[in-house]
Amino acid sequence: MSILEAYLKEKKELIDLALPLYLPPIDTYPKIIHEAMHYGVAVGGKRLRPILALTTAELVGFNDQKAIMPLLCSLEYIHTYSLIHDDLPAMDDDDFRRGKPSCHRVFDEGIAILAGDALLTYAFELLTKLARPQGPFSEGLVLQMISKVSHAIGTKGLIGGQVVDLQSENKIINLETLKFIHGNKTAALFETAMVTGAMLGNASKKQMKAIKLYANAFGLAFQISDDILDIKGDTVLLGKTVGSDEKKNKATYPSLLGLEKAEKLMLKCISDGKTALNIFGNKGRLLTELIEYIANRRI
Amino acid sequence: MSILEAYLKEKKELIDLALPLYLPPIDTYPKIIHEAMHYGVAVGGKRLRPILALTTAELVGFNDQKAIMPLLCSLEYIHTYSLIHDDLPAMDDDDFRRGKPSCHRVFDEGIAILAGDALLTYAFELLTKLARPQGPFSEGLVLQMISKVSHAIGTKGLIGGQVVDLQSENKIINLETLKFIHGNKTAALFETAMVTGAMLGNASKKQMKAIKLYANAFGLAFQISDDILDIKGDTVLLGKTVGSDEKKNKATYPSLLGLEKAEKLMLKCISDGKTALNIFGNKGRLLTELIEYIANRRI
User: For position A30, what pLDDT does the model report?
Assistant: First the structure.
C-alpha cells in the first residue's frame, strides 16, 4: 500500500467512525427516520469530500482533526442527501447504490425523501456547532462557511446541476451542458469541501486561489475518470453495472469527445492540478498524488 | 375591517411583495427550478409565520421591517418547502394546494422534490445575509438563529412530525401521538418564527419565556381551529374540500376528543396565550387579538 493509500484508509476509517456519532441516535423517536438517515450514511463510499476538506485544512497548517470533524461530517451528510434524492424513482430511479438497495427500496419513498431533507437540515445544524462556545472557531468564520456551503448546493450549484441532468435525459446535449451538469452536480461540492477546509485552516488569499484552481482540475479529472470507469471498469469492484451510461444513452466526456480526447483532457487536468499546488512545495505532495490516484482508480 | 385585519392585510402585502424579490430571479438558468420555486411561493396563504416573526420583533421594540425581511422570507420559504414535499404522491398525495394545482402537478415530481430542496437550502443562505456586513445583526446572533431554525425543522421538529403523520395513516392513534404530530409539524415552526423574531429584537429572558408560552398556546389553538374548520368550514372559502379529514380517516382533535371538548381546549389555549402576554401590557394587544382571530377564522 502506498503512503497515499494508507493515508486515505486511515482518514476514511476516522470519518466512518465519526459519521454515526454526530447524527441523532438511531433509536431516537421517530425511529424510522433516524434508521433511514443512518442507513444512507452507512452505505459508505470513499468519503472523498470530508477527506478533501481535512487534507486541505492540513495543507494550510490546521491539524486539529477533532475540531474540524463537524465540517467533515456535514459535507458527507449533504453528499448523502443528494444521493438519496437522486436515486428516487422521480429522479434517476436507481434501485442500488454501491451494491446495496437504495434508501427508498429499504424504506419507502416518503421516508427516503424525508431522510434526505433531514440530512440536509441536520448538516446546517451541525455546522453551527463549529463556532464558539461549542466549537473553537469564530462565529463570523462559521457564518461565512454556511453561506459558502448553502450557495454551492443550491440552484447555482448542486441542485442546478441535478436539474439540468434530469432535463437532459434521453436528449442529445453538447459539451457546454455536460460541463454545467458535472461542474455543479459533482465539482461544486468537491470545491466547497476544499475551500471550507482551507477557511477553517485560515488560508491566505494566495493559498485559497491555488486551492480553487486545484479543486476545479480535481473535479473534472474525477468526472472524466468516472466516465471512463463506466467503459473500462470492473462491475464487481464498482458495485454497479459497467456500460450503464451507454445503455442509458447518457452523454459523458468519452461519448462527446471520444475516449482518446477524454483521456487527454483528464491528463491535462491532472497536470493543471499539480501545477496549482506548486506554491505549497513538498506539503502539496498528498494532494498531488491524490489527483493522479483518483484519475487512475479502479473503483 | 378591524385594526387587526388591516394590520394582517398590510403585513401580508408587504411580505407578498418581498417573497419573489429575495429568490433567485425566475429566468435564471436553469429556469424550470426557479419557476417551480416561485410558483410554490406564489400559491400564497396567510403568511402567518413571517407575520408572527415580525409582530413579535415589534412587540419587543424592533421596528426595522427591511432589516428583518430576510428572516421573514426564509421562514416562508421553509414553510413552502415543507408543503411542496408534503403534497408529493409518496407523502400526502395532494393534487391541490389552496385551490391551485400542487407543485408536482404543474411541474413533475422530480422538479418538485428539487424545488423543495432548493427553497430549504436557499432559506439558510438568506439567513446568513442578516449578519454584518450585509445585514445589521451580529454574526453570533444570526448563527444562534440558524441553529434554532435548523433544529426546529429537523427530525426533532417539523420532519419528525411529518414522519409520524405518514406512519399514522390509516391507523388509530392516541392523543399523545396527535399532539406529537402537530406540535412538531405545525407548532414548531410557529414557535421558531416568534422566537427568532424576538431574538432579532433582542428580547429579555422574561420576554422570551412569555413568547414561548404564547407560541405553544397559539400553535395548538391554530391546529384545533384547523380541524374544526374541516368539519364546519366552507369549501369555496377554504380552497379545499371540507370533510376531507373524516374521509381520509384522519385523527383530529375533534375526532379524538369530540367536538365540544376540542372547542373547550381551544378556548383554554386562547386564554393561556392571552395570559402569557400580560407582561407586555397594551403592547401585546395585536397578538392577543390574533390568537382569538385565528381560532375563529373561516379560512
Answer: 97
Asked if residue A218 lies in contact with residue A182, where contact means CB atoms within 8 angstroms, the answer is no
Number of domains in chain B: 1
Q: Which of B27, B138, B159 is most worth mutating to test chain A (most A CB atoms within 10 A of its CB)?
A: B159
**A125 contact B CB<8A:** yes
Residue pair A25/B152 in contact (Cβ under 8 Å)? The answer is: no
Residue B128 to residue A114, Cβ atoms within 8 A: no
Per DSSP, the three-state class of A131 is strand
Convert the pLDDT of each residue in A217-249 to its tens digit.
Answer: 999 999 999 999 888 876 666 566 666 777 677
Smallest Cβ–Cβ distance between B154 and the set A125, A143, A166 belongs to A125
Q: What share of chain B is helix, strand, coil (3-state, %, to 5)?
A: 75, 0, 25
Within a domain: residue A136?
yes
Contacts 24+ apart (CB under 8 A), A263-268: A263/A224, A263/A228, A265/A220, A265/A224, A266/A220, A266/A221, A266/A224, A266/A225, A266/A228, A266/A295, A267/A295
Q: What is the pLDDT of residues A13-69, one digit of tens each?
A: 999 999 999 999 999 999 999 999 999 999 989 999 999 999 999 999 999 999 999
Asked whether residue A87 is domain-assigned, the answer is: yes
* Whether the Cβ atoms of residue B267 and residue B296 lie closer than 8 Å to each other: no
Chain A contact set for B170 (CB, 8 A): none
B85 interfacial to chain A (CB closer than 8 Å): yes
Angular region, B243: left φ>0, alpha ψ -120 to 50, beta rest: left
CATH code for position A48? 1.10.600.10
- Our CA-based measurement puts residue B96 at a distance from the nearest CA of chain A, in whole angstroms, of 18
ipTM of the complex: 0.96
A153 in any annotated domain: yes
Tell whether A299 is covered by a domain. Answer: no
Residue B161 in contact with residue B186, Cβ under 8 Å? yes
Give the one of B113, B153, B160 whose C-beta lies nearest to A30's C-beta: B160
Domain of residue B109: give its range.
3-295
Which three cell numbers mark A259? 475516449
- Burial class of residue B174 in the structure, from the number of CB atoms within 10 Å of its CB (0-12 exposed, 13-18 middle, 19+ buried): exposed
Question: Searching chain B, which residue's CA lies closest to the CA of residue A141?
Answer: B139
B253 and B178 Cβ atoms separated by less than 8 Å: yes
Q: Torsions phi, psi of A101, nearest 5? A: -55, 135
Q: What's the burial of A66, exposed, middle or buried (CB within 10 Å: 0-12/13-18/19+)?
A: exposed
* Cβ atoms of residues B196 and B224 within 8 Å: no
Q: Which residue has the cell 469530500?
A: A49
Q: What are phi and psi of B131, to 5 degrees?
A: -90, 155
Note the pTM of the prediction, 2 decimals: 0.96
Q: Other C-beta atoms within 10 Å of B2: how many?
A: 9
DSSP state of A107: S
> By mean pLDDT, which of A236-250, B119-133, B200-214 is the weakest?
A236-250
